[in-house]
């Protein structure tokens, strides 16, 4: 739950506490309810501005009630880890560890100068993007296909997590020196 919802929940709980205290007072002294009704009917609802203000405040509390009610039904799955269940319990594998496996596998390939790996969670599986800098005179399509197969099999073998896709992005060709680029 983010900080805004927590602050709203605190305000909501405060006013709900006041309302419950009022309800407890009504059970002890029942004429308070009739006095409150008379005050609301004669002094608040009889005039336009207090009536509009009361409608706005009650609408805000109605919306807050719906927000908190619906937030309880929203699944909050872990976005930074994959959870696998077995007979002994559950195993959580972070996306960072999957990135490290993909990175180590891609850097072992001949023809790769440098690489970066990014993993996103897709349902119960992952999608991996590898950005690579390759050496010159390398067949990029063959290297990319080899990288896709090896990264996918390494991640699936090490973690047991299904890899939905492996995307390879060749960022540049390593030339060994930095040239001034004119555009």
3D structure, described in words:
The chain has 183 residues and is an alpha+beta fold. It folds into two domains: 3-72, no CATH class; 81-173, Alpha-Beta Plaits, CATH 3.30.70. Helices cover 53% and strands 24% of the residues. The protein has five helices and five strands; from the N terminus they run αααββαββαβ. It has helices at residues 3-28, 31-44, 48-71, 95-107, 140-159, and strands spanning 81-86, 89-94, 112-122, 125-134, 163-173. The strands form two sheets. Strands 3-4-5 form a three-stranded mixed sheet, with helices on one face. It has a two-stranded antiparallel ribbon with strand order 1-2. A hairpin with a 2-residue loop joins strand 1 (81-86) and strand 2 (89-94). Helix 1 crosses helix 3 (48-71) and helix 4 (95-107) crosses helix 5. The longest helix is centred in the first third of the chain and has 26 residues, at 3-28. The radius of gyration is 30 Å and the shape is elongated.
| SSE ordering | HHHEEHEEHE
Q: Mind describing the biggest β-sheet?
A: 3 strands, mixed
End-to-end CA span:
47 Å
What is the CATH-assigned architecture of the largest domain?
2-Layer Sandwich
Instruction: Provide the low-confidence segments as ranges.
Output: none
Helix content: 40-55%
Number of domain units = 2
Name the average pLDDT.
85
Strand content: 15-25%
List the strand order in the largest sheet.
Answer: 3-4-5
Oligomer class:
single chain
Number of distinct helices: 5
Which word captures the global form? elongated
Pfam family, one: Asp23
Organism: Ruminiclostridium papyrosolvens C7
Transmembrane segments: 7-28, 52-73
Family: Belongs to the asp23 family.
